[in-house]
């Protein structure tokens, strides 16, 4: 229930953002019902609004959501025999950061009843929030809709500020990403680069530079690592 309520508020902001970009209500709802990725959906929305290509959307989603590869691999080791191949495929569509954290913290093996019971409220919370946000964006005055449009960006700021105050590497990545993004926006010969390609270049470039300058130190010093 807490995850579902949290998703409802975040997806409300996504619904408002989609309405600002004049995405049809049913299409906005369909996006959230077939995706569970706030950052990925927002990036995809920007690419669609700027008439980006399919390859841009594919590469952007692949980079933004690459962490789900590791989460899926980890959870695949915790499921019991009730997870058939088809059920594993269905379950993979509902892995998010929060769902992974709760599921992975369970000491016992995961069965289908527990896992799908865990994901049902977050899924419908995400879809309902999107629907409410899209409806609000279509009926509220323009100045209120524009104000609500920054809510999703505010959420991302709220996510990155706490770790950035504790880890110099995170702060460096945030500032570097901001600088690179501004370069694509203000430098004349870079302004022609599409939104999707700019996101891809920024993500890869910032990740590589940050990893080289601030590599994660291995914990523990025994012979087995």
Write the layout of secondary structure elements.
Layout: H1 2-20, H2 25-34, H3 38-49, H4 54-64, H5 67-76, H6 85-92, H7 97-105, H8 112-139, H9 142-148, H10 151-166, H11 168-186, H12 195-213
Helix pairs in contact: 1-2, 1-3, 1-8, 2-8, 3-4, 4-12, 5-7, 10-11, 11-12
Description:
It is a single chain. The chain has 225 residues and is an all-alpha fold. It folds into 2 domains: 2-158, no CATH class; 167-214, no CATH class. It contains 12 helices and no strands. Helix 3 runs antiparallel to helix 4 (54-64). The chain is globular, with a radius of gyration of 19 Å. The two termini are 38 Å apart. The mean pLDDT is 86.
C-alpha Rg (nearest Å): 19 Å
Q: Give the tally of structural domains.
A: 2
* Overall body shape: globular
Contiguous runs where pLDDT drops below 50 for at least 5 residues: none
Number of strands: 0
- Average of pLDDT: 86
Provide the structure class: mainly alpha
Assign a percent range to the helix content: over 70%
Terminal residue distance: 38 Å
The ordered string of helix (H) and strand (E) elements is HHHHHHHHHHHH
């Amino acid at each position: 229930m807490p995850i579902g309520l949290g998703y409802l508020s975040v997806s409300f902001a996504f619904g408002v953002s989609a309405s600002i970009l004049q995405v049809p209500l049913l299409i906005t709802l369909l996006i959230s019902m077939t995706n569970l990725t706030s950052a990925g959906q927002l990036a995809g929305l920007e690419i669609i609004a700027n008439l980006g290509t399919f390859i841009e959307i594919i590469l952007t989603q692949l980079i933004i959501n690459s962490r789900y590869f590791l989460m899926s691999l980890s959870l695949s080791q915790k499921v019991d025999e009730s997870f058939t191949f088809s059920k594993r495929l269905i379950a993979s569509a509902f892995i998010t950061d929060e769902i992974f954290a709760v599921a992975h913290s369970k000491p016992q093996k995961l069965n289908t009843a527990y896992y799908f019971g865990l994901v049902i409220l977050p899924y419908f919370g995400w879809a309902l929030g999107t629907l409410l946000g899209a409806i609000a964006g279509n009926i509220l005055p323009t100045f209120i809709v524009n104000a609500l449009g920054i809510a999703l960006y505010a959420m991302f700021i709220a996510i990155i500020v706490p770790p950035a105050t504790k880890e110099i590497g995170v702060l460096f990545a945030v500032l570097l990403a901001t600088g690179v993004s501004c370069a694509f926006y203000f430098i004349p010969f870079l302004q022609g680069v599409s939104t999707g390609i700019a996101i891809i270049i920024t993500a890869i470039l910032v990740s590589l530079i940050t990893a080289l300058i601030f590599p994660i130190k291995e914990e523990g010093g025994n012979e087995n690592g």
